[in-house]
Amino acid sequence: MEEVVKATNITWHQGDIKREDRERANGHQGAVIWFTGLSASGKSTLAHALENALFERGCKTYVLDGDNIRHGLNKDLGFSPQDREENIRRIGEVAKLFADAGLIVLTAFISPYRSDREKARKLNPKNFIEVYVKCDIDTCEQRDPKGLYKKAKAGEIPEFTGISAPYEEPENPEIVIDTGQSTVEQSVNFLFAYLTQHGIIS
Questions:
Q1: How do 31-36 and 104-108 pair as beta strands?
Q2: Which residues contact 109 (CB under 8 A, 6 or more apart)?
Q3: Hey, CA dihedral for 30, 24, 190, 56, is it positive or negative?
Q4: Using CA atoms, how far apart are residues 161 and 159, in angstroms rounded to an integer?
Q5: Measuring CA to CA, how many Å separate 90 from each of 13, 29, 35, 109, 119?
Q6: Beta strands 104-108 and 61-65: pairing type?
Q7: Could you give the 3-state DSSP secondary structure of residue 147?
Q8: Residue 189, domain CATH
Q9: CA within 20 to 30 Å of 59's CA: 28, 82, 91, 105, which one?
Q10: In a domain, 100, yes or no
Q11: Residue pair 171/30 in contact by the 8 Å Cβ criterion
């Protein structure tokens, strides 16, 4: 989908307080941790568990969750390929603002298309961490906390990722977590170690 720019006669206003100033005040770097994977793979569970752990250590952090965002900012969007693209474009822009404010923002979205995730990465060239929450579809179906796979297979939900719509696995994610093999605690510890090793948190 070609991006249409309707706003004209606008100029970016640069404030006096820079990202580095905010990061110094926060005591950690800003970052975008982008959780992607099938429905019921564990994206939201991991994102919120990591948010809790970061918050307990005094980090400024926030989760942008797929369903929550569709209750407000993106409530005008459906699940067609075009709407999915716009959904992720908006989240990429919002994540950019959070990271610029020096926060560690965690996004939990299926984000099924590689090209959309790559656009989000380009918007956030500093500290963009793609986390592929890997989980085989049989396990996702067994979990299915919202009953979505059952509805999708019954034809009640069109364009459902993994059933009637595609999911393009990340080719070079920074992190792969197999939630069929790792516990939430193990996964959070691994993510914490990564953030420490890369100097995002101390």
A1: parallel
A2: 34, 35, 36, 43, 64, 66, 69, 87, 88, 91
A3: negative
A4: 6
A5: 20, 22, 16, 12, 11
A6: parallel
A7: coil
A8: 3.40.50.300
A9: 91
A10: yes
A11: no
Q: Answer yes or no: are the C-beta atoms of 49 and 190 closer than 8 Å.
A: no
Count of beta carbons in the 10 Å neighbourhood of residue 95 = 26
Lowest mean pLDDT among 12-21, 39-48, 83-92, 173-182: 12-21
Which of 163, 167, 84 lies closest to 119 in space, CA to CA?
Answer: 84
Structure tokens at 44: 């939201």
pLDDT, greater one: 14 or 139: 139
Strand-pairing partners, residue 177, are: 133
Q: Could you give the residue numbers annotated as active site?
A: 111
Residue 52 C-alpha from the chain's centroid: 16
In a domain, 109, yes or no: yes
Are the beta carbons of 123 and 154 closer than 8 angstroms? Answer: no
- State pLDDT tens for residues 44-87: 999 999 999 999 999 999 999 988 899 999 999 998 889 999 99
Within 10 angstroms of residue 157's Cβ, the number of other Cβ atoms is 17
Q: Number of folded domains in the chain?
A: 1
* Joined tokens for residue 17: 């307080």
Domain range for 46 is: 26-197
Calpha distance 56→124 (Å, rounded): 25
Whether residue 11 is contained in a domain is answered as no
Per the domain annotation, does 180 fall within a domain? yes
